[in-house]
Amino acid sequence: MDRGFASSFVSVVPVGDVSQEICGTVAQEVTGTIGLVCTVSPETLDPRFSFDSKRKQYSSPALLESLRMRSVERAVRVLGLADVDLFMPVLTFVFGEAILGGGAAIVSIRRLWQSFYGLPENPALTRARAAREAVHELGHTLGLIHCPYYSCTMRSTRSVEEIDLASGGLCGPCRRQIAIVVGGLLGSDQEPAHRSSTQ
Ligand SMILES: [Zn+2]
Ligand SMILES: [Zn+2]
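# zinc ion complex -> structure
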């Protein structure tokens, strides 16, 4: 890895068993949409430490903290891509979670498969959903909050149906806000700025 480049890229970390194909699609979409080079980490994160035996799910905050630790030295942002089902204490499940204006985010692909809902599998649709969720959560790490525009990637979604409806890409204002924050990150060679214009 080129160390001089380390502060200006996004690292996708597979959490559990996630295919290279999905990781690759996500990395490509993040690079193209956010404007930070996104690469897939050769190291994976084993999620077993975050398993809750009562809920039979994995703790999103615990995994997020582990990913955040990796963001300090290795990349400006770290995105975990998990094959396991995630929860937060007050919610039944989460598609993903992010530190607002912070170093890490996580997305679960578990509920992005059509077979999760008893439907015939559509791998291309799952990859597109994963890419959309990745940009959404990374948008939060860049300081963006939820967007009222119906089809914007930063819209709040609670189901795959809503994720599919919010597949119009980033709206103009969200795109501009990301460009400003990313411009700031690329302009500083040392520590990431962690700035947020929404707080
Ligand atoms: Zn969100
Ligand atoms: Zn928007």
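# post-check
The first strand starts at residue 9 and ends at 15.
Helices lie at 20-34, 60-74, 123-141, 160-165, 172-187.
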